[in-house]
Amino acid sequence: MLLTGQIHGAAKPINVAQVRQLSPLRYPGGKTWLVPEIRSWLITAKRKPTLFIEPFAGGAMAGLTVAAEDLADHVLLCELDDDVAALWETIFQGNAADVRWLCNSITSFDVTLENVRQVLDSAPKAVKGQAFRTIVKNRMQRGGIMAAGAGLVKEGEAGRGLHSRWYPQTLATRIDALHSFKDRVAFQHADAFDVIREHADDSGACFFIDPPYTAGGKKAGSRLYTHNEVDHAGLFALMASVHGTVMLTYDDSPEVRKLAKQHKFRIVEIPMKNTHHVIIRELLILKP
Fold this sequence. Notes:
The chain is about 35% helix and about 15% strand. It has helices spanning about 35-45, 60-70, 80-95, 95-105, 115-120, 125-140, 170-180, 190-200, 220-225, 230-240, 255-260, and strands at about 50-55, 75-80, 185-190, 205-210, 245-250, 265-275, 280-285.
């Protein structure tokens, strides 16, 4: 097992504008604000992880940062959602022509309500086509919400409507950059629990666990994510059994604290700003 690294335990929320943005997805519950803590945790560990695993990848800011900064030998991303998986499959498993097609599709896309609806209503057969639809859906739907029923952006930033979150050249540049280190990143379109069990005996692995927030009566996960039903008690028990190091991140609730205590995890409170710019405390739950 890796010896525990250090957490800053910042006294005030991280300014996310100072964190390098790597993901092309704007993800509800994304962990951009947590990147400095994850970096500190890994850099100060006694041994570099042989494998960094993000089983609930979503926007994958943790895993992408680890790969970009060479904080682990290899990174494994896992995602169950078909649309999100198609994007990561194209970037990390597709060839250069697939990625070039995706980037060109983004930079040449004419953002009109008619065109957006046409893409969202389409049913692409190719994975790269599904990846493009995912980018459009993520950027055009309110709050980056991918679940069914999410409405399109209306006013957006500075009243720019659908254009407010569409930065085509920036998105293409990010995707191209991620593809450049595909040799360090593996992706599995799979259930998180299965992937964790597969690597449970790897003492050199580092697990970053950021599940949909449905524990302790939280409702957000059920409306933000297509796959939102998680056995949190089972997840805690599973993470207590793995041989590698573990960081889980959860909203603060009595149920979560009880599970952490039951399985002898450490708890660190980290301040963050929610979508309403109110400072709240997030729990980092650590093993060892």
